[in-house]
Amino acid sequence: MTVQAKPNSVTTGPIIGSQKIYSAPVGHPDILVPFRQVMLHPTAKEPPLQLYDTSGPYTESGVQIDLDAGLPQPRAKWLAGRDFTGSTGRIVTAADNGFTPVDKLVPLCPAPHKILVGQHGNPVTQYEFAKAGIVTEEMIYVAHRENLGRHQAHAQAAAFRADGEDFDAAIPDFVTPEFVRSEIAAGRAIIPANINHPELEPVIIGRNFLVKINANIGNSAVTSGAAEEVEKLVWAIRWGADTVMDLSTGRNIHNIRSWIMRNAPVPIGTVPIYQALEKVGGEADKLDWEVFKDTLIEQAEQGVDYFTIHAGVRLGYIPLTANRVTGIVSRGGSIMAHWCLSRHRESFLYEHFGDICDIMRKYDVSFSLGDGLRPGSNADANDAAQFAELETLGELTKVAWEKGCQVMIEGPGHVPMHKIKANMDKQLKVCHEAPFYTLGPLTTDIAPGYDHITSAIGAAMIGWFGTAMLCYVTPKEHLGLPNREDVKHGVITYKLAAHAADLAKGHPTARLRDDAVSRARFEFRWEDQFNLGLDPDTARNFHDETLPKEAHKTAHFCSMCGPKFCSMKISHDIRDEAHRVAGLVAQREAFKEAGGQIYIPAADAAE
Amino acid sequence: MTVQAKPNSVTTGPIIGSQKIYSAPVGHPDILVPFRQVMLHPTAKEPPLQLYDTSGPYTESGVQIDLDAGLPQPRAKWLAGRDFTGSTGRIVTAADNGFTPVDKLVPLCPAPHKILVGQHGNPVTQYEFAKAGIVTEEMIYVAHRENLGRHQAHAQAAAFRADGEDFDAAIPDFVTPEFVRSEIAAGRAIIPANINHPELEPVIIGRNFLVKINANIGNSAVTSGAAEEVEKLVWAIRWGADTVMDLSTGRNIHNIRSWIMRNAPVPIGTVPIYQALEKVGGEADKLDWEVFKDTLIEQAEQGVDYFTIHAGVRLGYIPLTANRVTGIVSRGGSIMAHWCLSRHRESFLYEHFGDICDIMRKYDVSFSLGDGLRPGSNADANDAAQFAELETLGELTKVAWEKGCQVMIEGPGHVPMHKIKANMDKQLKVCHEAPFYTLGPLTTDIAPGYDHITSAIGAAMIGWFGTAMLCYVTPKEHLGLPNREDVKHGVITYKLAAHAADLAKGHPTARLRDDAVSRARFEFRWEDQFNLGLDPDTARNFHDETLPKEAHKTAHFCSMCGPKFCSMKISHDIRDEAHRVAGLVAQREAFKEAGGQIYIPAADAAE
Fold it and tell me: Which of A35, A111, B249, B538 could anchor a disulfide with A262, C-beta 3.0 to 4.6 Å?
């Protein structure tokens, strides 16, 4: 095990072929929302394509990143205008860092961090603002972001309402701040945004918005340190992770998190029970409400945006897992099951759920109600244990809303295709349309090493059916801790799954990017095809393996079919031929022989 | 361009952890069907898991492969019993090898090859035998293969009828030769099996059987030679390709094919128009019926098992593609469209379709009716051109059946998720339930470099809906010719998609493998988990990246969570605890507090 010193470098600079821009919603010149523009070849005769951008300041051109100083704080001014009080915060203890010996201690991130606490009576959470009819800056921000920076007039002019099947979602052509507010007030969407995370670029999670993806990072007891984790964060958001969960366990957990939080432009989620367990020496039966409560406050003060809380793992449900093929596979779920069973007591998370809400509300930490009893194999999918817990999560959702908190619900896991929709339908019903946040699901168990793919199938489907955020799975799932390359592979795989879901739902802007790629492909604008894709570097490298010369970047073929067999080239010849024929009106009749089939006049055909 | 000499070595030997076996159906000791058995750790207390095996003699232990001699001929004896006549065959011309100069000519495979031709009046094709009520050896073979070697009594004892949604398919618990015959007679399934391919291990393609996958190989004008192509074949079937299409173009095409055919245990498909085009110097408008007919006979004599024939690209449909974003993207389709348009004539493939049937029947070459107008982008999915052609393919299916031929139908392509099912439903209807054979479909266009995944999503779904065979897509799709690693990646990806489809359809044996993996996972039998998966080598390498020691192969954790956080380890502790509690009857009452939730007695819980 190597614990590394403080992080000192991360990947910066634009994605090749793109530039970062910031755009303000009409009437809000101070609210600057980031986008990525893909620059196209002049022959394209198209404006740059504007893309949603999760990568933060790291992809600005010529950016200087100082991890010690932390990121700029777009939310600081907004938060300053709200009724919060300052706090000196709790004292950091040796337990917070897993009792790391001093010589192995990663230093705390020195970026200045003022701790804020919300008050009773005044709105603190986005849910409370929404319920009070107040549109926050975060809501204005995410509306502009979801519109890809388009203004209403522009959106209505440019939009085609793509066909799609949205299963009774209510996706608008243009997202207004008021629509955002109403969705949050209804509990159908959340903006995970701790008031102690001013560096955040807000993002909305809900089924009437673009499908989001989460990437997990985190050291485990056997590998990796601080530098690696911060770079994994920056790397994951570079390729499109909308949120990042820090699932660290082991030593230095508090201090590594300080580096992550101060340098994270995306919402950060954690599973506080992991750290609580470290504080009691890894023995689950020593956990109690006090150590858990202390951990919630510690992490909330640091700025964590959402907590996975496994409060649905009730004592009475544990025996329902006894005959499963793979038992309990959620780490948090198994810890809590162990606690309940060894003490023969109801879960302290369940019993203290109201107290947990009170703490989380004060900082606007969103709930991600954990699915501690999710199936770990296709054999266990949709069983009594899983659905009993889901019903409890629905019950807890109402409690959290009453307390003013934002809530999303975690879902499985491992589910064969024919059982996926039942998960979504049941979740919508019993959890009152709170956003669903699923891991995969994996649609078969026979492909260790390829579970990013077995799960992308399920993820695309459940995203289509209504899941708001998809937790990625990397090729290393079930086998080991993902490295940098695995993180990228997982993120790209989930981006394409989320986008496939947006397309199928008929999201009004989704097809713009597909069509831009397809036009580039048909017009042999190879560089544009690479740059418009999710991973320009890999696409370019694959192409260049067999045709490395610059001249081939405008060639009207690739090595797959070669010049004589390129169907797209022949298609162009056909259009040219059709065009030539257009002048020969007499010949047009000859085309009509084809048994009553429609023949489009060649003048149109040549377009 | 490098043209290599004759192939001299290929990958041989068992997949790690497995052994090849041959098993005979009851009452047919001469019919030896290959399977792969995965050997499990003694602690598993399970028999070896028997798997479908496409890899041919290459994976026998200690096998000696002599490519010059060709493979053993399991079908030779069966074919000898039928009423065929010998033929000296047509004369191979310089055109057959693309006019390759003598010094660059790959030699012909010297394996002995007697050419057979079927007669009028007597059954030749599997379809004709089936219609005549005759069960062939091929039918007996594939029945045993589909059952994974189980006998009827054993199958009924062991089978659980897995839940599933099969969309009105009719998947039996146990496949009998008579069921195979009836499915072939109904046109719902085919066994592509040219009478000149005695080396074949027969395979059945139909929606009431296991979903199959095809891998494409083939040199293009800019890269690769004979040795590479034979190794790609062997490599593709090693990882599970059920059929292989040789899409070669360019020089040496006839002679390279001779090496492939004599060393292929799987059905080989081709697109004869590619070679025909080479014979006329690459100029589509010089194609005619005579050169095409000559090519059909040439390839049929060599033993090709199925031909893609783009006879549905009719003159009148071409203008329907004029306003598409990506025009015509099928190579064969674009060649024929070019021919039709430049001559202002109906397709000679359509006009000579009856003649084509007569030739293909004589050798039992199956039709794969090509979708020359398939969409090349999500924008063009399910459009008028695509569906007009599909209806024509349905009309041609009936003609081919009347002529005694076996038929399957090719399908798209690029289709967003919400438009996939309409493809399957329409194909079943207009093509009279002839097996569907689709390329993907890709569910989004934004991920060049990852199109094996964008398409695996669509492939798994359309396989579930009823597609009988899935044509793989590699990571290099749209970018370049796949290499060996890409072929493996494509095959594994499609195997998992096909298997996910089998699971969702409720195929009675499909879940056996998933459950075996899950049990191995839960019991920390790491080697078993690797070996039961689709790619033991990759799974093992991923695991060993962080935990390389032999001792870690039995460790009750991996580097993902580390020892303290392994949920499966905790699950075992929970079961142990539950077991301990079982003796303390008095304590049982304490568990009942959980608000009316079911509590399973701990004695059951500990199982």
Answer: A111
